[in-house]
Inverse folding.
DNA sequence: CTCGTATGATACATATCTGTCTCATTAAAG
DNA sequence: CTTTAATGAGACAGATATGTATCATACGAG
């Protein structure tokens, strides 16, 4: 029940952040009153979805990092783990949350990504002259693009992470 | 007057697509009634902003393409011309328009970009094995990232296009 | 200066969304 | 089978945004 509502909210609010709760309830196959029983106010629902999205990406990345040897392998594992969660990204990007906890976690995630960039530089995978935030933004962008292309059916899910990693490190130019 | 309202709408609705027309009018320094005189309904305003954004990007790219020798030079000029229009991108991305004309123009722009990718492949700038839409999506992403970093003050505007082009073609990896 | 037009402020009716409440029904636990 | 809790449907009031209408004022053209 709770889960069905949260899934529906990711889908509906991800496409249109201004959608009504009636739409979310309908998508979840649930009465509007029941939605309010689980999430008294709209903000409660939004906060719960944000928290759930972040929990899932954190868990996915944590599992991916487990006994990964190099930073490059870590990056590839993270891409493989996170690209399928692209709809979560879409949802988070579509909102501008003012919640303090949410903002703090977002900052922490960004800092973790920047730390990964540092490691990649230390291991000579990423060029040292690449700006830190530029690199982090590019990783994010590759995740976004890969998910979009997979969702559109133009790219096989199995190929997505490798293509993203290759593009990120070597670009699209002809050798 | 009209222009001031459209500028305000790009700013306000770009940040928050659900913002009220009162906010747009206030940002424009205009009475709410005057806004309705120029744009009878909300949809009229939104459609006008979309059309204006597309006109500006089309004009910018058309000027950039003027007597550009190679496809690579065309790409660089387009990046230089379009990155400063990032707020227009932000606005367009924040909306999901159902207007037929708007959708048709969007498809046309996308096809133009894909055609540029084809030219880049013919000139051996982009590797032939790079998927067409993947490449186009990456060009879009570089524009987005570059504008974001410039807007955040982390990147000099003069460096943005070159960095974007370099990242697009050669990636972030160490040579 | 005078007239006409555009603007801002305000009031108003309408529509939509939100959150609460009630009630009948259903499903599960005892 | 009985009881209890959860659900769906619907009614309801309040809040907010929208679109229209009115009126006084300021600004510019003639």
């Amino acid at each position: 029940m709770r889960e069905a509502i949260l899934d529906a909210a990711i889908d509906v609010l991800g496409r249109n952040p201004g959608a009504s709760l009636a739409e979310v309830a309908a998508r979840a196959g649930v009465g509007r009153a029941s939605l309010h029983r689980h999430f008294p106010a709209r903000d409660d629902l939004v906060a719960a979805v944000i928290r759930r999205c972040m929990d899932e990406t954190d868990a996915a990345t944590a599992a991916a990092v487990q006994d990964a040897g190099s930073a490059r392998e870590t990056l590839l594992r993270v891409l493989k783990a996170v690209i399928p969660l692209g709809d979560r990204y879409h949802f988070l990007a579509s909102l501008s949350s003012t919640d303090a906890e949410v903002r703090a976690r977002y900052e922490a995630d960004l800092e973790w990504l920047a730390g990964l960039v540092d490691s990649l530089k230390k291991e000579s995978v990423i060029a040292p002259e690449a700006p830190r935030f530029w690199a982090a933004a590019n990783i994010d962008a590759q995740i976004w693009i890969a998910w979009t292309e997979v969702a559109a059916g133009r790219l096989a899910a199995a190929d997505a992470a490798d293509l993203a990693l290759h593009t990120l490190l070597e670009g699209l130019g002809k050798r």
In short: Residues 1, 30-34, 37 of chain A lie near DNA strand D (CB under 10 Å from a C1'). The two ends of chain A are 52 Å apart (CA to CA). DSSP finds nine helices and no strands in chain A.
